[in-house]
Amino acid sequence: MAEEAGLDLVEISPNANPPVAKIIDWGKYQYQKMKEAQKNRRSNKQGELKQMRFGMKIGQGDLDIKLRKIREFLAEGHKVRIQVFFRGRENAHRELGYDMINRIGTLLEDVAVFEHQPTMAGRNLSVVIRSK
Description:
The protein is an alpha+beta fold and 132 residues long. It folds into two domains: 2-44, Roll (Ubiquitin-like (UB roll)); 48-131, Translation Initiation Factor IF3, CATH 3.30.110.10. It contains four helices and seven strands. Strands 3, 4, 5, 6 and 7 form a five-stranded mixed β-sheet that branches. A two-stranded antiparallel ribbon has the order 1-2. The N and C termini lie far apart (52 Å).
């Protein structure tokens, strides 16, 4: 039947009883799969990781602006790394950094969740958040 139609006979499931085969144009099938894979790669770019840095002495206005930008990133489907950096003697009071991360978490709890607990790396305290 495949030869009469000028198409290819493709075995789909060889272990089935009886084996399953399909009559298709193999070149067209491969082309469609390739185009679908390209489309999926193009639409998969939204998983990017954005970063927002906070100092310990940030004012409320600046904090509001950064939180608004984080909400935009989350709405676009990105993950966001929140990073609190310590300068000089601020490093002796790391608990204030954890308090700031928790405060940011409560302000964003309607749209975001923490992926893991905050971690300290050198002079930076960071956590990754994603949209709910």
